[in-house]
Amino acid sequence: MFGAINQQNNFLRPGISVFGVVAALLDPLLVVAVLMACAWVFGQPMSPPFVILVVLSFALSFPGDLKLHEPARRVLRRVMMDWLLFVAILGSFGYASGYLFSFHQQMLLAWAIATPVTVGAAHLTVRYLLPQFFALHSQQQKAVVVGVNDIGIKLVQQFRTTPYLNTKVLAFFDDRSDERLRESDGIPVLGKLAELAEFVKLNQVGAIYLALPMAAQPRILSLLDDLKDTTASIYFVPDIFITDLIQGRVDEVAGVPVVAVCDTPFTGLNGVAKRLMDMVLAALILVLLSPALLVLAIGVKRSSPGPVIFKQRRYGLDGKEILVYKFRSMTTTDNGAVVKQATKNDQRITPFGAFIRRTSLDELPQFINVLQGRMSIVGPRPHAVAHNETYRKLIKGYMVRHKVKPGITGWAQVNGYRGETETVDKMQKRIEFDLEYLRNWSLSLDLWIIIKTALLVVKDRNAY
User: What is the pTM of this model?
Assistant: First the structure.
């Protein structure tokens, strides 16, 4: 939903399909339809400002994204978060420009409430009806896969479990002998690569997926020559796609095609939107909480001798060292080559420190780090430099989390991995959630993490 706000690149997108059209238009048409219905109910005239609102609503919500491969619960959450973000952006613009007061206020409220309910219900309905529609009214595209390997098998499984792709894999083709081939997941292996072109012509195959290793380039070029005498679409699925991609996408460098394997999600407009949200929220929070910050500073000063603000060296963006601010909660200020994590009933924690750690109030000075540009509100939590140097040697992909700025809260923290990580397994799970955040980032996901953090912080038992 709201692709203009959260637009992501996907790898295997073979042309424009019925599903693609439905996915792109469903959300914007529903947003506008609910707006028109509310206008009719409340007698809102079709004035020039209303026409502008209709156009803006369609533009901000186009193209939509059905995300049928995701669990229904996650889809509904995404719809709600996207809509809250939509309302915040449009509402801020309307308030600043004065357009907000050109409309019937009850109409706007009804629209704000009815739209996510309508869109969520539509997504669930389409999830049920679309496969049946394809089964009754659309002829399946025939496809073959070249290469009986991990990526070829995974591709077949995706076609089999994703009905809206409307593709039937007829066969595998591979040059290796039968004894060297792995199990082909029930799909027959019908011949060598030299026999593929003839099979494609005789069986009206519409798509060919080349799941061959990069080392097979000469064979691929020869096969492409053979297939020039067919009308089948050809897609190359290189074997790098079986690795753990972070923001993987196809891109260009001055006209030269390149494949991004590991990259930050915060490039271009995404980076601007992320930074803008950080600055606005951080400034607002610091202003609103300034009296509380003063009280907390006094409490820290009276709790034990030492500075009010504890500054610790941590890794930031691209693994560069930054200073992170916290209200001091311990009698010590460890910041050297060895840093001991806080544990349950840790004698170094002061009574006041235990309170501010349990309620996460000790993290509030990090909003200053956000304004400085060192941190973000949402992102992987920064670890002490000493911990980074230890875990980067033990956990594969550990340093990838530093492709983005560290956050005050993160996806790992709202999924139960906050506080002490006394075992490598716990740190491994935290890193897995951090990398999942990088793969799936969107502004709506950030908004959901912020809301979930606020709900969890009071009852979190993992903080001490």
Answer: 0.72
